[in-house]
Amino acid sequence: MVHHVFIRSLLCVAFVMGTYNPSGYCYLDWLREGVTTIKAAIGIAIVVIYSFLVWVVLGSLSISGAIAGLALTALVGHQIYLTLGPEAQVGAALQMIALTCFALFLGVGLSWPSVMTQLSGQVHKRYLSYAGKKNKSP
Prior knowledge:
Helix content: over 70%
Oligomer: single chain
Strand content: under 5%
C-alpha cells in the first residue's frame, strides 16, 4: 500500500516540477524560447492532465477534504520553510517547497481511495446485472 502512494506522489512531483520550477529547466522556460506546434500540443496535454488530476482528487477527497488537505500541506510547507531558516534563498526555496507540497497533495489525493480501502479492510466486488434477465418470483 505504501509503495503505491510513494510511486504516485513521486510521479506527481516529477509532473509538477516538469511543468514549472525555479531552476530554469521546465516546460514554461522551454515555452519562453518560442512557441511551436509541438510545444502548444504539449501544453494542451499538460492542461488536460492537470484537469484530470484535480477532478480525481476532488472526487476522492471532496471539496472539504481538498481544502483540509491543502491547508495541511501549506502548514507543513511553512514549517519546512521555518526549519530552513531565513538565510536560504527565499524565492526559490519557497517556490520549491510550495510545488513539492502541492505535488505530494496530488499524489496522496490520487491514492486516497486505495488507502482507505486498505485501512478499512474492505474488499471490492463487482456485481453485474444483466438487462435481459429478470428474476421471477413464484
